[in-house]
Amino acid sequence: MKKIRPVNSLLIWPTLPPQVYFKAKSNWRPFPLDQDNCRIYSKARQAIWQAFTSLNLGPDAVILMPAYHHGSEVEALLKAGLKIRYYEVNELLEPDPAGLEALLDANVCALYLIHYLGFPQDALFWRQWCDARQLLLVEDAAQAFLATQQGQPVGSHGHMAFFCLYKTYGLPDGGAVVSSVPPPFPSASRQSGLWRAFKRHINWVATRRKEVGLVHLLFKPVQTWWNRSLSELKKQHHKEFEVGNPSTPPSTMTSFLLPKLLDEGTAEDRRKNYRFLLGHLGEMVPPPFDSLPEGASPFAFPIEVSDAKSFLLRLRHRGVGGLLFWLNPHPSLPVADFPRSKALREGLLALPVHQELTMADLEQIVQAVQEARVGLTAKAAVAG
Fold it and tell me: Is residue 92 over pLDDT 80?
């Protein structure tokens, strides 16, 4: 096995700089935090459960869900009593109107639309499509907090929309919902969030101290293996989809840190980082991510590769913690029936693009990807 040299460790998730505690609270409140009907729970999956339970749709209600999904949102919908009917996304990761029409019947009540990687879907079109068929439009903006389309916030066209605040800022947790029928405020005991905030601080240190980065790179796979083994031992094969207590509020640390972290420049910082990576690695980026819309707020930088797991390992040796984006679908999905979604799960890698990255970090990502690509090409040539 190749020796891992000391190197800064760069992960998908935004880090938490220690100096945040000395920042003043921002008066800026972006959508949906500026809405009276906004509720914030610990996780977005809990917000989904609460929002749909509040609608009282009945036992036969069906929601149209993309086959390319995380899985936790599906579990939350099932727990809330809905039935799932899957649809395939097209080459631009959009719903196909003709395909959706074939799925409609009297029980379908809603269309679930995902704004993948912070790239806005045409929500206005889909709102009009849903209105014409008396359906609810649900916008999943978990990865699209701060994104806009034609000057309008992503999530503002739907009957309800969901956001993961911790995917944009280095928070311990935080899942927001804005809905035409507001769910109740969370009522369970508030967790401190200290341990998760501490881990985000460690991630920040690992991006700047190579010796910490090395320990970080060695520890993360062990932690992943341990969590997977523990889940298998407890026969919790789908623990990553668990909803938990749907009345859990955001942690104390999230409530304290969020006003300090909110910054009107965050989305543009992410776009700037994305443009840099696109300028150097653009030939590896599939549509629709090969061009950057004006209002996008990128969650990650995607590249398409053939041997994804080997590529990830080579990136990790070079200090870049990418991930196979949504590798494991919800167990209710008949995977073979949706080949495009299956191919996306197996070949779409996500790389860091968050606002805490420095120019040196971005150059490290580019170099790591280029070296991994050359290495795998050479290995394939020898094997051939």
Answer: yes
| Residue 105 and residue 62 share a domain | yes
Residues 202 and 317 in one domain: yes
Domain that holds residue 167: 22-179
In angstroms, the CA 384 to CA 124 distance is 50
Beta strands in the chain (DSSP E): 10-11, 38-41, 62-66, 83-87, 108-114, 136-140, 148-149, 152-153, 160-164, 175-179, 301-304, 320-321, 323-324, 348-351
**pLDDT score recorded for residue 280:** 98
Instruction: Please report, for residues 209, 239, 348, the alpha-carbon distance to residue 167 in angstroms, rounded to integers and kept in the order given.
Output: 23, 20, 18
Q: How far apart are CA 111 and CA 108, in angstroms?
A: 8
Higher pLDDT, 207 or 34: 34
Could you list the beta-strand ranges (E) of 329-380.
348-351
Closest CA to 95 of 71, 55, 127, 73: 127
pTM, whole model, 2 decimals? 0.93
Tokens 């935004």 found at:
14
Say yes or no: 89 and 119 in one domain: yes
Token pair in block for residue 362: 């971005």
Q: For residues 206 and 308, state if they share a domain.
A: yes
Given a contact cutoff of 8 angstroms between Cβ atoms, the answer to whether 286 and 346 are in contact is no
> Each residue of 213-249: pLDDT tens digit?
666 666 666 555 555 554 444 445 567 899 999 999 9
Angle at 187 between CA 185 and CA 191, to 5 degrees: 115
Cβ neighbours, 10 Å, residue 107: 14
In angstroms, the CA 60 to CA 53 distance is: 14
Question: Among 146, 179, 212, where does a domain finish?
Answer: 179
Length of the chain: 384
Cα→Cα distances 152→129, 146, 157, 166, Å: 18, 10, 9, 22
Token pair, residue 33, equals: 């935090």
Structure tokens at 117: 């990687």
Average pLDDT value for residue range 196-223: 76
Token pair for 59: 């036992």
Q: Is 117 left (phi over 0), alpha (psi -120 to 50) or beta?
A: left
